[in-house]
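Task card 7
Instruction: Convert sequence to structure tokens.
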Amino acid sequence: MRARQIWSAEMKANYKRGMRVLPLAVFFVLAAGLPSRAQREAPKTGSITRSMEQGIRLYHDGQDNEAMDRFMEILTKGTPSEKSLANEYIQKITLRLNTGVGTLRDKGPGAGSLSDVEEVKQTQVRKTVHPEEQVTEEEGIEKDAAAAKIAQKERVSEKIAARIAVMRRSALLELQRYESVKIYMGGELPKAITINASAFFMNETVFKPGVTPVLSNLAGLIFTLGKAGCLILPEGSVQNDLKIKNIRQALALNSYLISRGISPARIDVHLTGSDVKFPRELTNISGLVILFSYENEQRLVDPEEVSPRGPKVSLGIYPTAIATRNNEGAIVEFSVLAPRNGTPSWKFQIYSVQKDSNLLLLQEISGTGAQYNQSFWNARKNFFGAPYPAGKYQFALTAADVEGRENTIRRLLVVKPEPGEEKAPQPKMTSVNTATTLKTTALKPGKALLKNKLPSKFGKKGKAGAASLKNKPAAARKAAKPPPKTAATSDGALAASAEAAVSGEAQTAVSGQVSYKIYFKENSAIVTANSEKKLYQVAETLNYYPMSKVTLTGYAYSGEPNADTMAENRVNYVVSRLTEKYKIDKERLDAQTKVSDTPKTLVEIKLVGKE
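Output:
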């Protein structure tokens, strides 16, 4: 009896200990079964590799450059399932790097008419047979007005379709002039284009200066294709001979097209070449391949997490200058991608830039939700009305998420003056960054470097450092005619963008509209990490404007030791990097120095137009 009692007591104790241990064991079993973020996003077949796991982790940590290198390596050496996942992440990184119809409300007398291209495609002539019935005089007037409105839309549709067709044929004819570009047509529309990458790129990511007209016509052709999707395949991806250089070149072309304002919702880069259906018209798959699809819908959802800059937006205009006397017009394309945190709201506006730099609102369209829109603007009132005066017109798109974060993009369109019309002097538009530098006082006269002699070593003075800009004495520069008093900085200045005009207008004056600042560490000629990366952007911009001159101004703070020498060392460093690493012609560069009474440790780079 006593043994049974002892045995029962031991069993009870073990049972209690087991009940305490069991939940903990179950927890460890469940925890062991929970995959990490990288494992959850791994391919369904096979285990995830260490390189893939590192790439995914770097991507989520925001280290895009390092993650891109990992994924590119996987594309060249990984399995098919790994390549597919790496391709998805490269597309996400590219979109993140490239981006930083509702109620119609016309404002102001004689507001302009922005005709929607989408309506042009959907509008058809429909004749409805009505049974004979007695109608009042008022009903008859209403029916006549409705019929007249439909007829007006049909006329606008026909005119727009005809003009866009002319623009498309012009772009195709220009592209066919180049041996490095092959076009494969399917009826009146292109189905594919192949590009000889070696004729386009100076190195992995920098375009050759002479290809600007070709790129402009390529972007123009894509604008004229409406909602058509554009799929870019790197050279070698179809033949399973993909190299990292080919991937970077495809991404560089994608970045250029997006920088021109083509919506990222209809451009994609397919880095593996698998599962791609080629049109039968495409008979040669060598080189960089661009495929066009006229059936796919746009991807208007942002795959990224919530951006601190608001929803991703795009805005493009083709061409960037028109003449009303020739019945010309411009295609205006904009898009708003829906973020993950809710429905965005957006506002599209057209302004006339007045002579005093004030902005006059001509038209405003607003709405909510993701949006893709392509319209046609001919600088006339209600399309067929009187033309607007020659000058500059600003197009602006602003989008906000549910938390109030806004993102705005602006573009300029120039309406050319009529023959014999006296061209009014335009106020010089100054960027916001330039306006800040103009406030600096007591700047000492600068020293410019000679064009044909660069310092042999960073930090050393050039022997002819006292020569002034373009060999003119400083007194002559001061005696130059000052700008008009109306040249004030306004919101219109923000619309200036490093965008080449299409065809023969690719080298329009960009003086004062493109400006970069390269920052240095205090009391040294060592550039900051971010500014070193910015030099690449400067080189790309200079390649887009190969005929433009460039002014570099090296600054130093008067409180720094040897301020004059420090300013020269900084500008010398930037000149050397642009000429030696990025192969910019030194004949285009004019350097000077200034010493400021306020803390200023930078080099300012400006495009000053063409000679």
